[in-house]
């Protein structure tokens, strides 16, 4: 890989008064009374807004068997977003590698790279992104721990497919991920100089250490594992070894943040999103409830304790309050990039949140976003 091009694709540029580059993590949430089509339309609107305002990248996360999350097929969604954007980086945050054959991922992201040259990221996780039964159905195996334990080997295999550099004598030496580098070696072949940079995702120390040892960029899921953020980032930086990809650590964190014009409305929307998490954690996944339903819901003491703990890590309120919260979090963690996920019942609320955050940091004004 070309070191300069690869490093340039990873490191973002700070815009406006933001402390670091800002990006978007999209769970393609589906609210009660809405459809998956509505949610995907909102994703296009947010992606175009994010591009216009100067957010650096837009990632989609793989989840399965969750009615309120329509992002089971990141590669399909990213292809759709690529057709509606021109500059913003697009990627997976992430693809759960143990759910898939490495060759399939290399083919999918090679295709995405051909669609949107030089702006595709491949973020990889080792969790299933779902419950155990669904993971077994995805992997056609009951040995779920095996996939996680084999993650380094799967990662190495995927990297070789992306680079088309299996050694002679390897069983896969004559197998090629297409689109990919093999096309440049065919008669008359010309191949793009880009290939999707690999990111490792994590919510604990395993991927943090692995990303550091391999010299890869690292994305930490602060939005659902806040207690582990600082230890994981410290471990990543301590473990880091310079590579052809990066000469110094680069870590982003996923942050749950929602800005509204009115502080009370922010609390209502965050409560609805938290009720959705309560139901998910207790085996009752569903669509994201309305704020009215959440306000009328009678929480048990245990559920209320969970809600308070969960929302303590959701930055929400007016634009100024969210900006202050994001600034404080960046200072506390030293994150090189903040990837914001705004969870709410309605797509219009999520869209408005990104507008308000962009305004709060003085990001460039929107051009024609078609929203």
Number of strands: 9
Alpha plus pi helix count? 15
**Contiguous runs where pLDDT drops below 50 for at least 5 residues:** 1-7
Shape type? globular
Q: Would you mind describing this structure in some detail?
A:
Helices cover 45% and strands 13% of the residues. It is an alpha/beta fold. An eight-stranded parallel beta barrel has the order 1-2-3-4-5-6-7-9, surrounded by eight helices. α2 links the parallel β1 and β2 (57-60). It is globular, with a radius of gyration of 20 Å. It starts with a helix and ends in an 11-residue tail after the last helix. The model is unreliable at 1-7 (pLDDT under 50).
Explain briefly what this protein structure is:
Helix content is 45%, strand content 13%. By secondary structure, the chain is α/β, with parallel strands linked by helices.
Tell me the layout of helices and strands.
Layout: H1 3-10, E1 22-26, H2 36-53, E2 57-60, H3 74-82, E3 89-96, H4 102-115, E4 120-125, H5 132-139, H6 144-149, H7 151-163, H8 182-185, E5 198-202, H9 205-214, E6 218-220, H10 229-239, E7 251-259, H11 263-281, H12 291-296, H13 301-311, E8 315-317, H14 319-333, E9 337-341, H15 347-360
Parallel strand pairs: 1-2, 1-9, 2-3, 3-4, 4-5, 5-6, 6-7, 7-8, 7-9
Main attributes of the structure:
eight-stranded parallel barrel; disordered N terminus; 371 residues; alpha/beta; globular
């Amino acid at each position: 890989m070309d070191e300069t091009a690869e490093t340039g694709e990873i490191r973002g540029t700070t815009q406006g008064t933001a402390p670091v580059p800002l990006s978007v993590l999209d769970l393609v949430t589906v609210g009660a009374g809405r459809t998956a089509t509505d949610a995907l339309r909102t994703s296009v609107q947010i992606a175009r807004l994010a591009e216009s305002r100067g957010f650096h990248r837009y990632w989609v996360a793989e989840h399965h068997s969750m009615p309120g999350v329509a992002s089971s097929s990141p590669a399909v969604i990213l292809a759709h977003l690529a057709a509606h954007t021109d500059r913003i980086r697009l990627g997976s945050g992430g693809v759960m590698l143990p759910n898939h054959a490495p060759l399939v991922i290399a083919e999918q992201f090679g295709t995405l790279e051909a669609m949107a040259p030089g702006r595709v990221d491949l973020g990889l996780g080792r969790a299933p992104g779902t419950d155990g039964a669904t993971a077994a159905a995805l992997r056609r195996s009951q040995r779920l721990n095996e996939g996680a334990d084999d993650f380094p080997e799967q990662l190495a295999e995927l990297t070789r497919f992306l680079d088309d550099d299996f050694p002679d004598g390897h069983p896969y030496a004559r197998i090629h991920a297409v689109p990919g580098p093999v096309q440049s070696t065919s008669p008359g072949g010309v191949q793009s100089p880009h290939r999707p940079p690999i990111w490792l995702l994590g919510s604990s120390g395993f991927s943090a250490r692995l990303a550091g040892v391999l010299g890869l960029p690292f994305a930490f899921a602060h939005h659902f594992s806040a207690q582990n953020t600082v230890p994981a980032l410290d471990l990543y930086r301590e473990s880091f070894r310079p590579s052809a990809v990066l000469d110094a650590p680069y870590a982003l964190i996923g942050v749950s943040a929602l800005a509204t014009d009115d502080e009370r409305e922010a609390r209502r929307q965050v409560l609805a999103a938290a009720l959705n998490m309560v139901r998910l954690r207790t085996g009752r996944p569903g669509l994201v409830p309305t704020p009215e339903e959440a306000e009328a819901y009678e929480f048990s003491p245990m559920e209320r304790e969970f809600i308070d703990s969960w929302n303590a890590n959701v930055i929400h309120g007016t634009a100024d309050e969210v900006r202050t919260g994001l600034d404080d979090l960046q200072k506390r963690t030293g994150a090189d990039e903040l990837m914001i996920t705004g969870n709410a019942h309605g797509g219009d609320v999520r869209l408005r949140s990104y507008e308000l955050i962009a305004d709060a940091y003085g990001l460039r004004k929107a051009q024609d976003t078609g929203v």
